[in-house]
Specification:
Length: about 550
């Protein structure tokens, strides 16, 4: 092949779209024709002037096809102009819109590079479009020669998934750009970067400037923990973006999705998500190393994503065994060249421990038998998510934004011996009170809910002296709330934790645990006294939540 001239690389790809799509006018709403945005009365779309329920906001009106505030945060994220961005219901919808905008059924064709993501083929079948295959080469690398050999005048789209699902490897950037150059003016090269955030490399989207036939797919589903939100993006030259907006539904993005995406993309949340991705990567590498040493695993393929592909001795048997323990894996053995391949997503620490136990042939306690509760609490002052597992000791991960309080909640989890993950985003710019109190409420609710019907629990806990401070804690998970707190702290703060909040914390815990709690603390050092209260409470709780048999520790028949 000869190298392409710059003019060909810049050739607009709209000319290759379906003629009827090029000829049609996209749907235009009446209000989008009014210049200046000065209109305040909208009698043009037969909407209701009322909101559908008390507290609803912006649900009565049709959203714009590309809501401007959503567009702004997505463009900031990708560092791209809105001309190059079309937001859709997931990358899946982007695949579908490309198919419908460009491929004339049944004469046109697309090329996929198996083993790869299933939706390219699904979409093509739905649109009545021929699918040609250019299988990946050695080590699942892009086989440019094979792609070009499959191409003819009716080839409209070539899908390159990078990192590829399910093989998990990143494709060579130069190979992709070379393919773009070879196919300039002829076919779009659609690079699916669903997992790019896990690969530690930049998006290829910057090459849009030099390659008019490049399209990049991004999504919040995997990297931003938001598969349920359904938000993905097609990145393309403006002429292609215009075609996509004609094919896309007039109001594809529901208003609640806009609100969710705004929360996801808030800068502070982006930092948290990046930490979570890093966590997943660390766990992935630990899991891969441990999995390699288990009997059923022949090979764990290198991965640039949040999943890995394992070649095992018997994929069907492994998936069946996992299924019995309540763990669902993706058997990829049906894909060409992937005999006995199983794809494993990287989950939580507990989940990966369970997966390893399955690989080692150890007994696994089904998650249904553990006392787990998740609780989300949201007010105008705080947003809290808490997860407890009373039958596991790890992980313990706490982030309230109040350092000393984190340390105290950590003491509760460690000394009571249960797994606690608590995150709070509170109005700390005002003061820590709401955060401290609301976290205690949420924790109380979560523990109580994890206790379930309380069969087999110790119910009571007692605790006595600690250090030079003396604390006495007595606890009864009676189902009735009562707090007796006796203690005077000789300082008004310990670190960033106000000591006048300590009684509040235990009150909120006792009330929401529906427990009877007596605490008496004496001492001279506020730090020691506060810490003694939390540790004492934790030790009492440890005895009370411990399960032994299934008997209800009450003569009344309920607790
Ligand atoms: C999961 C996945 C998608 C789907 O993304 P959505 O935005 O959820 O539609 C697209 N491409 C690949 C490679 C995927 O693995």
């Amino acid at each position: 092949m000869t190298s392409q001239t710059p003019s060909r690389a810049q050739a607009g790809m709209a000319a290759r779209a379906r003629p009827e799509i090029r000829a049609m006018k996209g749907y235009v709403s009446a209000r989008s024709l009014v210049a200046g945005g000065g209109a305040t009365v909208f009698l043009d779309a037969n909407e209701s002037p009322y909101e559908p329920y008390v507290g609803a906001s912006d649900l009565a009106r049709y959203p714009m096809q590309q809501p401007p505030e959503l567009m702004r945060v997505i463009c900031d994220w990708l560092d791209l102009s809105s001309r190059n961005v079309t937001v859709m219901r997931g990358a899946d919808e982007a695949i579908d819109c490309l198919m419908r905008a460009f491929c004339v059924p049944p004469v046109d064709n697309i090329i996929i590079c198996p083993p790869t993501f299933a939706m390219y083929r699904q979409s093509a079948i739905l649109q009545g479009v021929e699918v040609r295959e250019a299988p990946l080469a050695d080590r699942f690398a892009l086989d440019t020669a094979s792609v070009l050999a499959q191409c003819d005048d009716n080839t409209k789209l070539v899908f390159v998934c990078s990192p590829n699902n399910p093989t998990a490897n990143l494709m060579d950037r130069d190979a992709i750009l070379n393919l773009c150059a070879e196919l300039a003016g002829r076919a779009l090269v659609v690079v699916d970067e669903t997992y790019i955030e896990y690969a530690g490399v930049d998006s290829i989207a910057a090459a849009l400037e030099s390659h008019a036939n490049l399209v990049v797919l991004r999504t919040l589903s995997k990297s931003h923990a938001a598969a349920g939100v359904r938000c993905g993006v097609a990145v393309a030259r403006a002429d292609v973006s215009e075609l996509l907006s004609k094919v896309l539904a007039p109001y594809p993005i529901p208003q609640p999705v806009v609100q969710a995406v705004m929360a996801i993309m808030a800068p502070a949340n982006q930092v948290k998500l990046a930490e979570k991705r890093q966590d997943i990567i660390t766990r992935r590498d630990e899991f891969a190393a441990a999995a390699r040493d288990t009997a059923p695993v022949r090979e764990v393929l290198p991965t640039d994503a949040n999943y890995l592909l394992m070649i095992v001795d018997d994929a069907d048997a492994l998936c069946a065994r996992a299924g019995e323990a309540g763990v669902i894996l993706r058997n990829q053995s049906h894909q060409p060249g992937l005999a006995n391949a199983v794809r494993v997503s990287i989950g939580t620490e507990d989940e990966m421990d369970m997966m390893l136990a399955i690989l080692r042939g150890e007994a696994v306690s089904a998650p249904g038998e553990e006392r787990i509760a998740r609780h989300v609490r949201r007010t105008s002052e705080t947003a809290i998510s808490v997860e407890v597992n009373l039958d596991r000791k790890a992980p313990v991960r706490i982030s309230t934004g109040v350092g000393f309080y984190d340390h105290m909640l950590d003491q509760i989890a460690k000394h009571a011996g249960f797994s606690l993950q608590l995150e709070c985003d509170g109005d700390l710019h005002i003061d820590p009170h709401h955060t401290i109190e609301d976290c205690a409420i949420a924790l109380g609710v979560a523990i109580r809910s994890a206790l379930g019907d309380k069969r087999g629990v110790g119910r009571y806990g007692f605790c006595l002296p600690m250090d030079e401070s003396l604390v006495t804690v007595a606890l009864d998970l009676s189902g009735r709330y009562y707090l007796d707190f006796k203690g005077e702290f000789p300082a008004d703060h310990v670190g960033d934790l106000p000591t006048d909040m300590i009684e509040h914390v235990f009150r909120s815990l006792a009330e929401n645990l529906q427990a009877n709690l007596h605490i008496a603390v004496e001492g001279e050092n506020a730090h020691h006294m506060v810490e003694a209260c939390f540790k004492g409470f934790a030790r009492a709780l440890r005895q009370a939540i411990r399960q032994d048999g299934a008997e209800l520790p009450s003569t009344k028949g309920v607790l």
